[in-house]
């Protein structure tokens, strides 16, 4: 059996830029297979975002997937998401529920041998998905919640729990569970956890927060 030629790579062993003929093994009938050209622009785009600077350093060890408490609910494990990014499969990545299922526990980042900020990359992927109007099936509620939370922070300087839930019900993200949520909502209201009116931070604090939010948005955040 002929030896399979090594793929020519660019950067950090990332992806092949041109089509290459690869010798098929005997199980494939000896027919040649072709590796299609890979678009490296998506990898470069993610690498330019905050937290994505070391994406190309991924060695596919699987520590992130093995550490993830929500991996079994994901379309693609974190390890596979990084492989798809390096292969330029933008639609597959942004259409996945993986970033939306991330619990933000940062265990993957702590255990990553290449010090990749995996959780921050997941946030970046969610921002890209929102920007491009992509809502994977089953995660619309998570997207509405994220957008409503950010709107509350911009408006009041902090989250307003009652307004957040109201937005989710009015936008249809959780309307079908309204009556099921009522007992818990009333309990939280009695405990002072669901105020009818929002609490605003001080004008000085809002001015400082606006500077932070504007700086974050300029770098592709929020």
3D structure, described in words:
By secondary structure, the protein is mainly alpha-helical. It has 2 domains: 112 residues, Orthogonal Bundle (Fumarate Reductase Iron-sulfur Protein, Chain B, domain 2), CATH 1.10.1060; 84 residues, no CATH class. The protein is built from 11 helices and 2 strands, in the order ββααααααααααα. α8 packs across α9. The longest helix has 17 residues. The N and C termini lie far apart (53 Å). The N terminus is likely disordered.
What's this model, at a glance?
With 222 residues, this protein is mainly α. It has helices at 41-47, 63-67, 78-86, 90-94, 98-101, 107-111, 118-131, 140-156, 161-170, 178-190, 203-218, and strands spanning 20-22, 33-35.
Topology at a glance:
Elements (H helix, E strand, L loop, with lengths): L19 E3 L10 E3 L5 H7 L15 H5 L10 H9 L3 H5 L3 H4 L5 H5 L6 H14 L8 H17 L4 H10 L7 H13 L12 H16 L4
Antiparallel strand pairs: 1-2
Helix pairs in contact: 8-9
Features:
222 residues; mainly alpha; Fumarate Reductase Iron-sulfur Protein, Chain B, domain 2; 2 domains; globular
In the CATH hierarchy, what is the class of the largest domain?
Mainly Alpha
State the domain count.
Answer: 2
> Mean pLDDT across all residues, rounded?
83
* DSSP E strands, number: 2
User: From the helix content, strand content and strand pairing, which structural class follows?
Assistant: mainly alpha
Question: Whole-Å distance between the termini?
Answer: 53 Å
Give me the CATH superfamily of the largest domain.
Answer: Alpha-helical ferredoxin
| Tally of helical segments | 11
- Coarse morphology: globular
Largest sheet: 2 strands, antiparallel
Strand percentage lies at under 5%
Order of helical and strand elements: EEHHHHHHHHHHH
CATH architecture assignment of the largest domain: Orthogonal Bundle
Radius of gyration: 22 Å
Strand arrangement within the widest β-sheet reads 1-2
The amount of helix comes to: 40-55%
Low-pLDDT segments, ≥5 res: 1-28
């Amino acid at each position: 059996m002929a030896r399979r030629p090594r793929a020519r790579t660019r950067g950090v062993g990332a992806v092949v830029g041109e089509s290459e003929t690869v010798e098929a093994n005997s199980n494939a009938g000896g027919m040649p297979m072709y590796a299609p050209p890979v678009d490296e622009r998506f990898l470069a785009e993610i690498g330019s975002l905050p937290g994505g600077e070391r994406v190309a350093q991924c060695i596919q060890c699987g520590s992130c997937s093995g550490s993830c408490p929500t991996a079994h609910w994901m379309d693609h494990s974190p390890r596979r998401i990084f492989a798809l990014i390096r292969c330029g499969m933008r639609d597959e990545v942004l259409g996945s529920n993986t970033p939306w299922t991330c619990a933000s526990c940062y265990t993957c980042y702590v255990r990553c041998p290449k010090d990749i900020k995996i959780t921050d990359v997941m946030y970046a992927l969610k921002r890209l998905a929102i920007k491009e109007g992509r809502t994977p099936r089953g995660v619309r509620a998570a997207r509405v919640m994220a957008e409503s939370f950010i709107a509350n922070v911009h408006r009041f300087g902090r989250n307003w729990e009652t307004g957040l839930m109201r937005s989710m019900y009015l936008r249809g993200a959780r309307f079908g569970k309204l009556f099921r949520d009522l007992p818990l909502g009333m309990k939280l209201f009695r405990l002072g956890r669901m105020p009818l009116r929002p609490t605003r931070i001080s004008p000085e604090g809002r001015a400082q927060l606006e500077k932070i939010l504007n700086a974050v948005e300029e770098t592709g955040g929020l």
